[in-house]
Write the structure tokens for this entry.
Amino acid sequence: MADINKQQIGRILAKQGILIAFAAFMIAFTLANPKFLTPDNILSVVRSSAILGVMALGVTFVVISGNLDLSVGSMMSFSTIVVLDLHDKLGPALAIPAMFAMTLCLGAVIGFLVGYLKLNSLIVTLGMLSAIHGLTLTYSGGKNMDIADKEGTWFGVFGQGTALGIPVPILLFLALAILLGLVLGKTPFGRKVYAVGGNGTAATFAGIRRARTVFTCYLISAGCVATAGVMQASRSLGSQNTVGQGLELEVLAAVILGGASLMGGAGTVFKTVIGVLILGFIQNGLLLMGLQFYVQFVVTWIIIILAVWLDIAAKRGRLWSPIA
Amino acid sequence: MQAGALSNALKTGAIWGFIVLELIFFSVAGQYLSLSDTAFMDIDNMLLLFKQSAPIGIIAMGMTIVMINGNIDLSVGATYAIAAIVLLESMTWPIFAGLGDWVIPVAWLLALGAGTLLGALNGLIVWKTGVDAFIVTLGAMLGYRGIVFMFNGEQPTSHLNWTLVDFAEAEVFGIATATWFLLAVTAVIWFIMTRTVHGRNAYAIGDNREAAVNAGIRVGPHMMINFMIIGFLAALSAVVFYSESGSVNPNDGQLYELWVITAVVLGGTKITGGAGSVISTFGGVLAIQLLRKGLGHIGADTETVNLVIGCILIAVLFLDRQLNIKGKEELKV
């Protein structure tokens, strides 16, 4: 009897562990500091997580399809720099679609290499991380990019504006999360993404065009990155060349926290949103407790490993690895 | 069989062929484009190149073992920074004040010990929890970097010991200290991988873990030892470099993991494990450094280096796969 109960508890933990951990964190931080659970604080946390969150939505597709994307950070730098540069040359209304087209081209290149040529996604996106960084520096000549007339443009609305009392970045993040959540959960394409990631060979035999599915996942990821670039550019109306550096790993951390398996085939958009929020609230909670900013990195480290470990442990039915 | 041997030779020799191509290209292009009078193939220039390859090269040797073993280590850059801080900070501790210059070996041991310990921690987690090395070391990369920043905020940690600087800048037989370290590490790791049981088992585990387990190889300890080796080498790389520079920024070593992995993959080591060679990694390290130096020599902007290296990495991956497919087809015939 006891054994069955233990297994049941394990299964529940495995399925909802991330939500339970999230709730536990929220309660602990609220007890530690009453300011934590005020609407103002919650809005500011979600707002500052929005850019990371939008990128994580796209990477969720890539990870579920069984691949990795380490290039989103430098791709975000690229789109931020390009949209800022084009803003002064073409005006905002043309700059945004032009930048989207360029970023989607980069996504298409990665999608072609990984999907159609079937190259290892880790190495390809590692190479693209470096290549796009070089591309950005070449494009900007290594200089910071700034909008000349910061007062007279409506471009700031994506990063700084509010609608219905809610900051626009949050609305964008939510809208994109709902849209992509529906695409992944309710459409035939979404089913294909899971199938390709879960068992690529079986998916091919079932008549799914594996290459095309992977290609589309990278396009979605690039589209999300371009959106994040608009938000970042609009928030500060100026940017360094390295604005997205290191974000690829934070994004991946959020996706993994959300329970997506790096082997592919598992994960949801909703859980990724939870992963993003956990990262954001931990960062905020630790700061409110008066701890140094950098403590969050150490806490994130511990949480990532614990989250994945418990997930695996619940699946194999024992805590420690059977490796001798 | 003949054709298979040819494709094998192509694969192992490819990196050296690439280096020769680079040398020819930059020498010829340098004649027309270079801003300086000295030739690219100048002996001093080449010796400097070896010295500059040392920090990345020493870590790359460790990464080769870990990747042959079927794992990966993304935390080397952060381990490098921690070891550098331990090295410079421990020399200023009051308990060592009476030691005089004997503080140097103590500081070295502490730094190397710290690196080995951090590597062991990664290895232990991979072994005992069964979590993928990619995730474990991705987390450790964040965590270790956090520790670096917690130590001294955004401030650099500095301490110059002139005896140490003299040692690091010394040249034996015209070859810099850092180069000697690189050569020695390459030789030792080559010996481990080709002449010891541990090396053979590392290949076996990377090639087919199930089979290795069934053959009675204890997979866990081997993986842990390899993580300790790469931690030790990351620390050694820091020790060699910061003995000379004497100041470490909390951001130092960032993106080192990318350079190191690029060098190892250029050298032909399989990302999935089971195949790879230490000597080819040495070639990969040289090829990258040549590229950085050569592009500077012909007056290209430094930013072009990233672009070129990224493209070359992908091209190598593509070529490697084409050669492998060919090999398999020939086997069938």
In short: Residues 67 and 214 of chain B are 21 Å apart (CA to CA).
